[in-house]
Amino acid sequence: MKTTALKLIVVASFVAFGLSVQADDGFFGGGDKYNGEARGKPVIPVQVNATWQQECAACHTAFAPGLLPAASWTQLMNGLDKHFGVDASLSPSQASEISSFLVKNASNRWSAKTAPLRITESAWFKAKHNEREVGATVWRRPAIKGPWNCGACHPGADKGDFNEHSIRIPK
Ligand code: HEC
Ligand code: HEC
Questions:
Q1: Mean pLDDT of 59-76
Q2: Which residues are near ligand 2 (CB < 6 Å)?
Q3: pLDDT, the chain, mean
């Protein structure tokens, strides 16, 4: 009796997990999607901040603000001197201008309490780039470098365009 009930719970939670990974936009509505780690809609505002566009695109794609929640951006902007092993410091006025832009336009669908510093560690990112879509060895191709290099496969990444129809995976 007990074990049957337990089995049912296990099966039910697997089904629920499967559905929550599968279901993207609209199916279950906002909160539960990707365990609350969902990117914003839109991912980038029509009017972007020029300082952000210039300074945050110096080493990689200027990552669209809606890819992370506000708490992630605040943490990231407070640690620019130790930015993933490099010094990406800015003047206090530039930093606060960029910070406001990122926080104001952060993901509006992120309900989890999590605040990853990497987009590539978020649940929505992992679900969209699972093993089936991008195999482990693909990430390491010289033309791709790593998952953080969005523009390698999404030509419009700088403009926040991640449309699945424009994806080109370099060989
Ligand atoms: C001096 C070079 C440099 C500048 C300028 C720079 N970054 Fe970075 N950034 C890096 C490096 C290096 C990484 C780590 C890449 C890797 O994983 O190898 C990184 C990673 C990131 C990541 C995590 C990407 C992931 O893996 O999901 C975010 C978010 C990020 N940067 C935001 C910013 C923002 C916002 C700015 C502007 C304020 C900025 N960066 C400016 C060098 C830079
Ligand atoms: C190796 C190539 C590659 C890299 C690098 C890459 N992606 Fe993707 N991306 C894909 C593929 C493949 C899909 C799956 C498209 C599908 O669902 O049919 C995808 C899907 C997406 C989607 C969902 C698109 C949609 O319409 O559902 C978003 C958003 C996205 N990627 C953002 C990013 C961001 C942000 C980065 C960098 C931090 C990144 N990607 C790096 C290949 C890549």
A1: 97
A2: 39, 67, 119-120, 128-129, 133-134, 138, 144, 147-150, 152-154, 162-164, 167, 169
A3: 88
Query: Ligand 1: distance of its center to the CA of 18 in Å?
Result: 32
Distance 2 CA to ligand 1 centre (A): 51
Residue nearest to atom 20 of ligand 1 (CA): 84
- pLDDT per residue over 28-45, tens digit each? 444 578 999 999 999 999
Query: Atom 42 in ligand 2: which residue has the minimum CA distance?
Result: 153
pTM: 0.88
The pLDDT score that the predictor gives to residue 130 is 97
pLDDT at 6: 54
Strand, helix or coil for residue 77: helix
> What is the residue extent of each domain of the chain?
37-166
pLDDT for residue 13: 53
- The angle formed by the CA atoms of residues 132, 16 and 162, to the nearest 5 degrees, is 40
The dihedral sign for the CA sequence 40, 110, 121, 103: positive
Cα 157 to ligand 2 centre (Å): 9
User: Whole-angstrom Cα distance, residue 92 to residue 88?
Assistant: 12
